[in-house]
Amino acid sequence: MTFIQQLAAAWQKNNSLLCVGLDPDPAKFPVHLHNRDDAIFAFCADIVDATADLACAFKPQIAYFAARRAEDQLEALIAHIHEKHPGIPVILDAKRGDIGSTAEQYAIEAFERYKADAVTVNPYMGHDSVDPYLAYPDKGVILLCRTSNPGGSDLQFLEVGNSGGEKLYERVARLAAEKWNTTGQISLVVGATFPAEIARVRAIVGDMPLLVPGIGAQGGDIAATVEAGRTKNATGLMINSSRAILYAGKDESFAAAARQVAQETRDAINLYR
Amino acid sequence: MTFIQQLAAAWQKNNSLLCVGLDPDPAKFPVHLHNRDDAIFAFCADIVDATADLACAFKPQIAYFAARRAEDQLEALIAHIHEKHPGIPVILDAKRGDIGSTAEQYAIEAFERYKADAVTVNPYMGHDSVDPYLAYPDKGVILLCRTSNPGGSDLQFLEVGNSGGEKLYERVARLAAEKWNTTGQISLVVGATFPAEIARVRAIVGDMPLLVPGIGAQGGDIAATVEAGRTKNATGLMINSSRAILYAGKDESFAAAARQVAQETRDAINLYR
């Protein structure tokens, strides 16, 4: 099954557009995990097990693992998700971007080493920096388009070409939809902090899935996000929440607290579908 | 000493603008290394030891290590460079790019875990995706500006704003020079395949150092690169060569062959300074 097919099945099975982001910061872990060598794995696996029937995808952020020399725990975590919760795709949030011969190495990292189902990729270096990921026909490639951070506007919101006001992020969406997505593997990242721009991207890309970070801690509005981004069949979105779910609880019941917030978030999203 | 100061000292001491790129592909290693568990480290360390008096910097490409679960060998390699060849800065070529809280993790990865002196960063997500690296005052941050690959033109060569024809890569150069470089830590990547654009960037950024990939295997011209990019004191450039040096020889004398090509490349660069 391809990433896109897995995602569509998970949307249905769990009645959910919620992507649970796994950004494990040991300083925020419950005290009982502090002395475990595999604390990052243990924390994330408990979150995964508590939320797997509420999510359409899991999205581990590789930076949190790499900063702590915990690549082995990331491998174990993704293997755990595949084994215990088959059908829920794993997006490796790595935002890689390099020329072709190096991108091939990053594709090996994401898809062969970590066995992720999809990876996030930065489009700044253009089509040949994206192609090597598309050589894995079952995998998804999720390109940054309009990011949720304040500095996202520095480049992405510039008008480009003599194009009647087209912005750079719109050009990325158009290139992705019209030129680069020859194999149907591409999705886009569009931040929840800009609902009008989610709507613009949706108008450009048809039913292409959109990964939407920025609700919760970053302040994006769920209702506006869903209304702007849903497709005709009320799917098309992976709405990510990380910190609000991961750190909902502070003690041994953290996984139950995470489940509670995940359920509320899924249901809040579904209210507006 | 800061990265920029180390670089300036290495330019002088080794009379060299050559950056030796370390993109280790085990399939291309000499046969005698094939069965070593630490083949990647051993290969790169031999290259480093054979070229350290000819280079102004070493640039390991992290993708080649990550694809092979060889992060420990990358740590060992950078420690080896610092111990055996103090004063030659190490640029971690990682092209990271993410929002602030995640960029902090990538900065920990590059500067605290690997102890690199500088890291390459993708500017697509704007100023707050760059700031966390600048929190390490001795370190260098090298932003992608105009990359050497064919797809580099897809976005970087678009005209932006109502700006009289300013291209996206020129805007990146101007933002870097005029707004983001408050601490003097920023350099830029500009590909050797576009000498006219190296000259444009040099005109925008004054004496800011430029990392220039694309000579050798990618076809960039050394004379045109140096003429377009040198500063008034005939420095300002880190001209990278990877494959042409690493794979100059195929047997046990590979390091001597690499030294020979590195010396020829350094001298060819110096002809045009």
In words, what does this structure look like?
- Two copies of one chain form a homodimer.
- With 273 residues, the first copy, chain A, is α/β, with parallel strands linked by helices.
- The model of chain A has no long low-confidence stretch (mean pLDDT 96).
- Chain A has a single domain, classed as TIM Barrel (Alpha-Beta Barrel).
- An eight-stranded parallel beta sheet of chain A has the order 2-1-8-7-6-5-4-3.
- The first copy, chain A, starts with a helix and ends with a helix.
- In chain A, helix 9 runs parallel beside helix 10.
- Helix content of chain A is 44%, strand content 14%.
- The interface between A and B is large, with 52 and 52 residues.
Main attributes of the structure:
globular; homodimer; 273 residues; alpha/beta; 44% helix; TIM Barrel; 8 strands
Précis, in short:
By secondary structure, the first copy, chain A, is of the alpha/beta class. The first copy, chain A, has helices spanning 3-13, 39-51, 62-66, 71-84, 100-113, 131-134, 152-156, 168-180, 195-205, 222-229, 243-246, 254-271, and strands at 18-22, 57-60, 91-96, 118-121, 140-146, 186-190, 210-212, 237-241. The mean pLDDT of chain A is 96.
Count of distinct strands of chain A: 8
Proportion of residues in extended strands of chain A: 5-15%
Rounded to the nearest angstrom, the radius of gyration of chain A is: 18 Å
Strand order of the largest sheet of chain A: 2-1-8-7-6-5-4-3
Helix fraction of chain A by DSSP (H/I, runs of at least 4):
40-55%
Q: Label the CATH architecture of chain A.
A: Alpha-Beta Barrel
CATH class of chain A: Alpha Beta
- Let me know the CATH homologous superfamily of chain A: Aldolase class I
Specify the number of helices of chain A: 12
